[in-house]
Design brief:
6 helices; elongated; mainly alpha; single chain; about 60% helix; about 160 residues
Length: about 160
């Protein structure tokens, strides 16, 4: 007997929609894009010092003595990106640290990972510093159909 796969499909859609909604809510409560750009900035900075490429039979090695500096900067940028996701209240510290590490990666880590890590680190750090937490909206307690109580200028209340 062949199991009915169509009977499970609506429940799968509901589960996927619920997961997408929960992710959207989670993403809205923290500097998600700042963390993503900051984490992605560490990858090219880590990659280029340890890459050995072949271009038409000619070896191209970007390995330099700055490999240790690139390793430290890349790992720290990835850690700062994760910090932005899981500890959003540290966003200003993590943003300034990401900006400084991205700038330091220019002379230390092969032009900031051939400008890829430098630019994404600067964007991620800037987004982290400029992000503000969402403001909780409170329901209004004043009635909507209330007449205006404004008094025109010069016609104040007199108690004569």
């Amino acid at each position: 007997m062949i199991p009915n796969l169509f009977g499970r499909r609506p429940r799968l859609r509901v589960t996927a929609a619920d997961a997408r909604h929960r992710f959207r809510t989670w993403r809205g409560e923290r500097p998600f894009w700042a963390g993503l750009f900051t984490s992605l900035a560490g990858l090219p900075i880590l990659y280029w010092p340890y890459a050995n490429l072949d271009l038409g039979g000619f070896p191209l090695a970007m390995s330099t003595t700055s490999g240790a500096g690139a390793l430290i900067i890349g790992v720290l940028l990835i850690a700062l990106g994760l910090t932005l996701w899981y500890h959003p209240h540290h966003r200003v510290f993590a943003g300034i640290a990401a900006l400084l590490l991205a700038l330091v990666s220019f002379p230390v880590a092969n032009l900031g990972g051939l400008f890829l890590g430098l630019i994404t680190g600067l964007v991620g750090g800037s987004l982290a510093c400029s992000w503000t937490p969402p403001v909780a909206t409170e329901p209004s307690t004043a009635p909507a159909n209330r007449a205006s109580t404004a008094v025109p200028a010069g016609e104040g209340r007199r108690d004569d």
